[in-house]
């Protein structure tokens, strides 16, 4: 529990701010960076970045996926997703094609080469889990809490006042 004595002095006429290491945003930022950095040496031999790995995981799960669904499931915007998909397609891991009924819709399909990459990536989740080292119940509770937090933030963005 943070008490007023623990807070930074308030600026003239302002409200005191909690210390950086007491802020939720910093805890999330630090955890996100730490976990993402864990993946780097595991993904490097596969020639994948973390966002590319997320795309490949979704394709390994589904076999094919509409670009708009990548965006919503992985929370990646088109500006990030399009060049990422182009690089994976250039490597022969996936192919993209337009829907003849709706030229705006693009379907992404896993190739055989992309499917073979899965075997090389299968140990990654377990390796990451060993380093995270949380009991299964705590791991699941944390994952669910983070999903709820993300949903709450996305739903509440429109309610933020301009300029903070």
UniProtKB/TrEMBL annotation:
Question: Does this entry carry the keyword Nuclease?
Answer: no
MF annotations from Gene Ontology: DNA-binding transcription factor activity
Membrane spanning segments where?
none
Annotated InterPro entries? HTH_MarR-typ, MarR/SlyA-like, Transc_reg_Sar_Rot_HTH, WH-like_DNA-bd_sf, WH_DNA-bd_sf
Q: Name one GO biological process term.
A: response to stress
Q: Which domain of life is it from?
A: Bacteria
Residue limits of the HTH marR-type domain? 21-151
Entry's Gene3D superfamilies?
Answer: Winged helix-like DNA-binding domain superfamily/Winged helix DNA-binding domain
Q: Which protein is depicted?
A: MarR family transcriptional regulator
